[in-house]
C-alpha cells in the first residue's frame, strides 16, 4: 500500500536569493545606463556648442579660443565613448576610460568656475564630475575596483 503525504508546510512565496541579486544587478545596470546616457547627451551637446562657437565660450571665461575648441572635441568624443562601446560591445573597456577623461575635464571646469565665478555655480560641474566618477568606477574591471592603492 502506498501512503500519500500531504504536507501543510508551504514554502514562502519569496524568490530565491539568486533571483533577488539578479534583479538588483539588473536595476543597478539600468540606472547606470541611464546615467551614462544622460552624461553622453550632456557632453555631446556641450561639446558641439563649444565647437560651433568657440569664441563665445572663450569670451565667457578667460581661456583661449583654441583651448575651448579642444575641450569641445574632447567632450564630444568622451560623450560618444560613454555609450558606443557598450552598445556595440566592441572594446567596452573604453567606457571607464572615457568617463575618467571626462572626470578630468570636470575637475578643470569646477576649478575654473569656482575661481572665476562663485562656488555655488561650481556645484553643477562638480555634480557632473561625481556622476562621471561613478560611471568610471562601476564600469571599471573588478580587479581594478578591488585594488588597494593606499
Q: How many E-type strands?
A: 0
Summarize the biggest pleated sheet: none
The helix-and-strand class reads mainly alpha
Question: How much is the average pLDDT?
Answer: 86
| Percentage of residues in helical conformation | over 70%
Question: Stretches where pLDDT falls below 50 for ≥5 residues?
Answer: none
- Total number of domains: 1
Per-chain topology:
Blueprint: H1 17-52, H2 54-60, H3 65-88, H4 94-116, H5 123-139, H6 142-146
What are the defining features of this structure?
150 residues, mainly alpha, single chain
Mind explaining what this structure looks like?
The chain has 150 residues and is mostly helical. It has 6 helices and no strands. Helix 1 packs across helix 2 and helix 4 runs antiparallel to helix 5. The longest helix has 36 residues.
Outline:
The protein has 150 residues and is an all-alpha fold. It contains six helices and no strands. Helices cover 75% and strands 0% of the residues.
Amino acid at each position: 500500500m502506498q501512503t500519500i503525504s500531504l504536507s501543510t508546510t508551504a514554502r514562502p512565496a519569496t524568490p530565491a536569493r539568486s533571483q533577488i541579486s539578479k534583479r538588483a544587478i539588473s536595476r543597478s545596470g539600468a540606472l547606470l545606463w541611464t546615467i551614462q546616457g544622460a552624461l553622453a547627451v550632456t557632453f555631446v551637446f556641450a561639446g558641439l556648442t563649444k565647437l560651433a562657437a568657440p569664441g563665445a565660450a572663450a569670451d565667457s571665461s578667460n581661456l583661449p579660443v583654441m583651448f575651448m575648441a579642444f575641450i569641445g572635441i574632447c567632450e564630444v568624443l568622451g560623450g560618444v565613448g560613454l555609450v558606443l562601446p557598450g552598445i556595440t560591445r566592441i572594446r567596452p573597456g573604453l567606457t571607464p576610460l572615457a568617463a575618467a577623461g571626462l572626470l578630468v575635464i570636470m575637475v578643470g571646469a569646477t576649478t575654473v568656475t569656482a575661481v572665476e565665478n562663485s562656488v555655488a555655480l561650481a556645484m553643477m560641474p562638480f555634480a557632473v564630475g561625481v556622476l562621471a566618477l561613478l560611471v568610471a568606477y562601476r564600469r571599471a574591471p573588478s580587479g581594478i575596483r578591488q585594488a588597494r592603492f593606499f
